[in-house]
Amino acid sequence: MDEFLQRALLGGFGVALATGPLGAFIVWRRMAYFGDTLAHSGLLGVVLGAVLHINPQLGVVATCLLVALALVLLQRQRRLATDTLLGILAHATLSLGLVALAFMETVRVDLVSYLFGDILAINAADLYWIWGGGGLALAALAWLWRPLLAITVHEELAQVEGVAVFPVRLAFMLLIAMVIAVAMKVVGILLITSLLIIPAAAARRFAHSPEGMAALAGLLGCAAVGLGLWASLRWDTPAGPSVVVAATALFALGSVVPGRARRY
Amino acid sequence: MSVEPLLTVENVNLAIRGAPILQEVNLRVSSGEIVALIGPNGAGKSTLVRIVLSLIRADSGRIWLKPGIRVGYMPQRLTVSDTLPLSVQRFITLGAPATRARVQAALEEVGAPHVLDSPVQAISGGEMQRVLLARALLREPDLLVLDEPIQGVDLNGQYELYDLISGLRQRRGCGILMVSHELHLVMATTDQVLCLNRHVCCSGHPDHVARDPAYLELFGLDGAQRLAIYHHHHNHRHNLHGAVVEPAERGAHG
Predict the structure, then answer these.
(1) What is the ipTM, given to two decimal places?
(2) Cβ–Cβ contact B140 with A under 8 A
(3) Fold annotation for B31-55+142-254
């Protein structure tokens, strides 16, 4: 196997193993649009990284956190609903990123690779970021698992039972920001949400416990990466979108296959 | 029976965007005692419960909980999203870690021994209330706070649940604060009733409250009864918003 292909597979698997379990929580907590909004602000983070001469991934994490914070503050007013606020933030930050990029004549950025990912260009340093950042995010998720699950089921009941709700929610946002920074290289900021949502949604029908669904989502994500890469090489299609199409195909297949799935 | 107070609420006030929700509310729950909060919809019952549980803050007043107290809470309504695969056992142990045997014992205590491995979305409303109670009990609470524990339960089940709650108090000696819609349901099992309509209209032993003009005014069972008590000595009335109306404002039909 070609070396670039090995790196692409390794990077893709690393991302899928992190986005699967995290995506399960995003599905349970109905935060798909929130994740999408943070991802859209990723480009602004790349620009920020270039301006401050820091690693672009760190710039993305910082920007995602700022956007999450802005959302929390904006939610305090009650005139506009959350989905409206998310729509404003998502497209304002994406456009701001594109405009800022145009001003930066000295910085050359491959825009398409940031928007749609460039999994075949993953290098060794990217792999360290993916596996290091993804592993850290998974470890943190495991640590947060119980309180996060408790507030997902019922926030007030969890609070009475002693869960520190606000810190847990904040930590979860930080995890989403980290995983977005990690996944950007593979599928790009416009398609990251799909790697969070689709494998988790596909896993739902076959899972009987939260942990089972999270693990299965990770594995289905890996399968989508493998299938997508294979299809991309076979038919010379763009790799990131091919991975998303493969994930969607798995989801569709899982929805129609007759199974012993119980009604929940 | 011990009369050690577990919870006292003193002169609590809360207004939301200028509208008074609770005014000068006082409340006390001791161990081994069942206190019921009754009142019409929008009377502030659940709000008061949420203040007691520190889920929201009152504008003024004092909430005192016995130091080191363990509180078990049963929220008004809880539905788990279909997207989350969760068995009843897992649901219950989210509140406090417990062995399978202890969870099963708690479910038996609340009369729902057969649901342990059921998906939490597949059980009936009445079973869900019992499961919530089991989750609260596994925390070995000193104080149980139950927000409309019989919601979505059929009439037979309602009496059963109140019997169960009353039995818990005797077996475990915990104090119980519960919200209910109707006095007649809680009469047999309750030590003290607080009739709430933004302020405490009347309080005391259920028999006493049932005869209180303020209670009859609020809940008046039928028109005749309401008329009969009308010429007696109640000292205030409510307008549509539940605020107390001064005698001068009552209008001509007094």
Answers:
(1) 0.87
(2) no
(3) Rossmann fold (3.40.50)
